[in-house]
Design goal:
Strand content: under 5%
Number of domains: 3
Order of helices and strands: HHEHHEEHHHEEHHHHHH
Radius of gyration: 49 Å
Helix content: over 70%
Structural class: mainly alpha
Distance between the termini: 162 Å
Amino acid sequence: MNPVHIIIAAVVAAALTLVIIKLFDRLRRKDAETEAKAILAKADQDAATRMKEAELEVKEKAIEQKAKAEEGFSKIREEFRDHERVLDKRQIALEQQGDDLRKQEKIVESTQRRLTEKLEDTQRRNEELAKLLDMQRQVLHESSGLNREEAEKQLLEMLDRELTEETGSLILKHQKRVKETCDEQAREVLIMTMQRYAATLTSESTTSSVDIPNDEMKGRIIGREGRNIRAFEKATGVDVIIDDTPGVVIVSGFDPVRREIARQALNKLIADGRIHPSRIEEIVEGTKKEIEQFIQQKGEEAAQEVDVRGLNPRVIHMLGRMHFRTSYSQNVLRHSVEVAFLSGMMAEMVGYDVALARRCGLLHDIGKAADHEMEGGHPKVGADLLKRHGENETVVHAALGHHDQIVSERPYTVLVAAADACSASRPGARRETNAWKNWKQLPSAFPACSGRSPFKPAVNCA
């Protein structure tokens, strides 16, 4: 092969190589463009997807904000409605007061008119009466032949005789009126004394306080729309008072046992933290069983302490209930145990049955455990309770007559009454009050009440 052919072949090969390279470059460029287009398309698609997601998220947030705003608006509207209702009630009350005032004004006007008419009529009648008296005086002077001085003298003598005869009846009448006034004043003294002392005593004997860790717990105790507090009050039979006092919830009720059950159950619920109606019922039932066991235990311990045997289980249970009852800050169960020991010691000194005296003393106030459930005072309630459960007549009579409300015909009743007074009046047993300290300073005009407690007046005390 000659060099020309070689050169031509090399040129052709170079040309072919160049063409092939350009073809490859063009193909790579097309592939790159295709890939770029695919990437751009994918990017556009991703961007569109993200835009849609962003729009959906924005719409959801807008819906949530709208719902929150509507909820706030609904609360504001409800508050406005409440204010409107309060204002409407006040307006109605003001209108009613205005009507009442107008009616009272009319009544006053009519009353004044009637009084004016009566005054005019009275004045007219007085004038007529004066004329009649003058006429009668002239007729008397003419018929009797006496002058004015002689007629006045005879008239005064006649009046003196009549007044002398009526003096006794007038004195008796005034004495009766004075006695009625004294009795009324005595009642006012007693009522005022009891009223001034009753507020603190009632508050202390009918409420219990429960400490809470924070004020947020008040909302949990109330529950949604008050369902928790309603369930608690229904299960325990007490009232729960939640006010602005920080760190305290008040349990109120006249039954001390129910109040103690409610107090312990509420403490357990606060400690547990799960407060809802079913949990409330569960805790209250458990607490009731614990309190019933505690009451039975206290009754048995009291009976064993004073060595009184053979008591009816119901009587033992009522004894245990007295652990939750106080009388002027004195625990009634401990008071009954004291009275039992004192009665036993006095009975031993005078030669009576010590066991029977202790039995009478222990059970003398048993009516206080059930006097809120039955009609009558605690002596009558206790006597009926003991008689119904098989106690003998001596024990029943001691419970009925230990406050001198009946004639004490049995010596054990007198012993119990004396022991009851000793236990109640020993220093530190009961709260001292100004009314008690000043009781003996009352006027001697009220002998029926002299020396008696203003909080335990005699039956016939005026």
